Amino acid sequence: MIAQIGLSILLAGVLVYAWTEYRRAPVISILSMLVATAGLYFVWLPSHATRLATLVGIGRGVDLIIYVWVVISLILLLNLHLKLRSQSELITILMREIALANARAAEPSK
Amino acid sequence: MISKQHKNPNTGSIWIVVAAFNEATVLGPIVSDLMRRTYRVVVVDDGSSDATGQIALSAGATVITHPVNLGQGAALQTGIKFALQQGAAFVVTFDADGQHRPSDIARLIEALTDYDAAYALGSRFLGSSRGMPLGRRLLLQVAIWLTRVMTGLRLTDTHNGLRAMTRDGASHIFLRQNRMAHASELLEQIAASGLRHVEVPVTIDYTRYSLAKGQRLSDSLAILFDLSAQKLHR
Fold first, then answer.
1. Inter-chain contact B232–A105, Cβ cutoff 8 Å?
2. A30 is a domain residue
3. Tens of pLDDT, residues A57-93
């Protein structure tokens, strides 16, 4: 029970985070919300997880949940990468303005 | 050498954007040649560690310096923005490594006015290319095919750094891809702008220097990654 509550809180955290990310990266957000919801479901109904696991060819439900967790982490990693990309876009824009403000023209030679 | 007379008399409103990163060994003569043809030249020194900026300046160009290296796409965007700020009627992008011929620029500008187009894109496959290795040729063919699939543009050369745009065309371009994926991004934006484009045969001179600076297969995989990553955010 304790493990289930702990995991639920974590997954709920992922859900909320994914929701807040929706405007910035809708694809990532929806993916992580789906995965987190599935996670919540299986944390509380592990027998379903076991049934689904055998169905898709994984031994135990626990294994399935671990795999799901790995997938969530990878998605969050990708999201982090995308965040870094938009950061560097902002830096680029900033640097461009600085560069443009310091344009040097050749001495007039006529 | 006397340059060919341009149909468009006012070469002063034509800005040539040259993105340069550590090109000190080759840049001087290229800028001088462009200046002789009375174009306005802006060299974007993309955080070079050599004398690129100084050489461009003494050759007569306006120089904009990125404090650190951002990539060719970022440098071109900076140059395009500067040219528009200066009131350019035409903006031309020109590679710094000496593979383009300044004499081709006049033909691009002519094509813009003759065909009432917003973009004139240089094509080495309509023109001629000297010393292109087979691997490079195959790589470019794949890029051409991918461009057709992704943007619907039927081009013969998708990764040619020599292009001319009208002011209207240039203001529809905003490159977010700092690195090499900018060439594909630019074509996407051309397609999205709905403005007319033409392809103009140009000559590419492959030198040992330009080939060493050119793209490899691993770079094209990185380009694909960059393009798809951009689709996922904002």
1. no
2. yes
3. 888 877 877 887 888 888 889 888 888 988 999 999 9
Q: What is the pLDDT of residues A36-56, one digit of tens each?
A: 898 888 888 888 888 888 888
- CB-CB contact of A98 with B64 (8 Å): no
* pTM of this structure: 0.79
Contact list, A74 vs chain B (CB under 8 Å)? none
CA A49 to chain centre: 23
A85, part of any domain: yes
ipTM: 0.81
For tokens 């973009």, the residue is B119
CA distance B88 to A19: 45
Number of structural domains in chain A: 1
B230 in contact with A, Cβ within 8 Å: yes
Nearest to B104 by CA among B37, B187, B197: B37
Q: Which domain holds residue A9?
A: 2-101
For B182-228, the pLDDT digits (tens) are 988 999 999 999 999 999 999 988 877 777 766 666 777 777 878 88
A64 within domain boundaries? yes
Position A106 in a domain: no
In words, the CATH class of domain B11-231 is: alpha beta
